[in-house]
Write a structure and sequence with these properties.
Largest sheet: 5 strands, parallel
Distance between the termini: 41 Å
Structural class: alpha/beta
Helix content: 25-40%
Order of helices and strands: HEHEHEHHEHEEEH
Number of strands: 7
Strand order of the largest sheet: 2-1-3-4-5
Number of helices: 7
Shape: globular
Radius of gyration: 19 Å
Length: 231
């Protein structure tokens, strides 16, 4: 009897482990935390309290306070990869800062979409820097994108969505849209997500410090994502 019970428990635990879904994050600064990014050279915005790096004016200092960590824990997911890059835009156009290139093709969501491992769930949190940097919105284009096209938001967003659907055909993909962005960015995200049958969650009422989620904001962020995933 004990042997049968042991075999049964082992089988249940094995099936439970096999059923654990793997989640990957494709994001910008909102999803970063020092020591948790892949690749490791991705630019970071959130740092632990004991970091030697000068930290922003924000009270988030533990990885467990980040929205994606809380979602992973609450949903019982295994983190496959967090490929987030602070300041990254979806398209190739970035910030026009003195002495710096506004060509963000090296860190764009488009360029990183193929480096997410083997996820069952993909959470994309982007569009914020496209909105803040003043990236041109462009025209809707669904195929045969030229390199020039990808310096505008709509073709860039469409290209990214197409890549995700092609590379991860079995994955559930959710686009998380920040609050307080440009109207043309919001409208474009909704239209393109519908075109590619990608779910879209519109965030609301997220507390922020330095334009980034605070501890309270991260908790509410995670709550909205978990509620959406459990629908």
């Amino acid at each position: 009897m004990k042997k049968i019970l042991a075999i049964t428990i082992f089988a249940v635990l094995t099936l439970s482990a096999q059923a654990q879904l793997k989640v990957s994050i494709l994001g910008d600064s909102y999803s970063t935390f020092e020591g948790m990014m892949e690749p490791s050279w991705n630019k970071i915005w959130y740092f632990p309290e004991n970091s030697t790096v000068s930290k922003p004016n924000n009270d988030v200092t533990l990885v467990s306070q980040t929205w994606w960590y809380q979602v992973t824990e609450q949903m019982g997911y295994k983190l496959e990869k967090n490929n987030s890059f602070s300041g990254a835009t979806i398209c190739y156009s970035g910030y026009k800062r003195p002495g710096e290139s506004s060509d963000y093709s090296d860190r764009s969501f488009i360029g990183r979409a193929g480096d997410l491992g083997h996820p069952d769930v993909i959470l994309v949190c982007g569009g914020t820097n496209d909105s803040w940097s003043g990236a041109p919105v462009g025209e809707y284009k669904w195929k045969k994108w030229t390199n020039e096209d990808l310096y505008t938001f709509r073709p860039g967003m469409a290209k990214m969505c197409s890549e995700l659907k092609t590379l991860y055909p079995q994955a559930r993909i959710v686009f998380i849209l920040n609050s307080e962005l440009r109207d043309d960015i919001n409208e474009s995200v909704h239209t393109i997500c519908r075109k590619y049958h990608i779910e879209c969650l519109d965030l609301h009422d997220i507390d922020k410090q330095g334009s980034h989620p605070s501890i309270a904001g991260m908790k509410e962020f995670a709550r909205q994502v978990v509620e959406f995933l459990n629908r």
